[in-house]
Amino acid sequence: MDISGASQSSVSSTLEIKSLQLAKSQQKIEGQATIELLEAAAAPKTSSANSAIGSIVDTFV
Predict the structure, then answer these.
(1) How far apart are CA 15 and CA 12, in angstroms?
(2) 28: number of CA atoms within 13 Å, CB side?
(3) Can you tell me the distance from the alpha carbon of 21 to that of 19, in angstroms, rounded to the nearest whole number?
(4) What distance separates the 2 farthest-apart alpha carbons in the chain?
(5) Is 25 left (phi over 0), alpha (psi -120 to 50) or beta?
(6) Among the residues of the chain, which ranges form H helices?
(7) Which residues 6+ apart lie within 8 Å of 48 measured at CB?
(8) DSSP 8-class letter at 25
(9) What are 5-29's pLDDT values in tens digits?
(10) Is the pLDDT of residue 41 over 90?
(11) Cβ–Cβ contacts within 10 Å for residue 40, how many?
């Protein structure tokens, strides 16, 4: 059954394209949020008066 002359495959293709566009848009938003989160979580640069502090890390358990 045709509605307004549009075939079912045409409507299906249009909906698939729109779905892909929305998914791409969502990925861009999530990617930008991830970048902002990583930038906000960057470790602050601190310096110590004693440069020997923290220079040796004991890795033996």
Answers:
(1) 5
(2) 6
(3) 5
(4) 81
(5) alpha
(6) 8-40
(7) 54
(8) H
(9) 567 888 899 999 999 999 999 999 9
(10) no
(11) 7
Owner of token pair 């779905």: 19
Confidence band (pLDDT; 50, 70, 90) for 49? low
Answer whether 48's CB lies under 8 Å from 54's CB: yes
Question: Would you state the structure tokens that stand for residue 50, as one six-digit string?
Answer: 């004693």
Q: Which two tokens stand for residue 12?
A: 């299906």
Q: Which two tokens stand for residue 45?
A: 């640069």
Name which of 48, 52, 32 is nearest 40 in CA terms: 32
Q: Token match 């249009």: residue?
A: 14
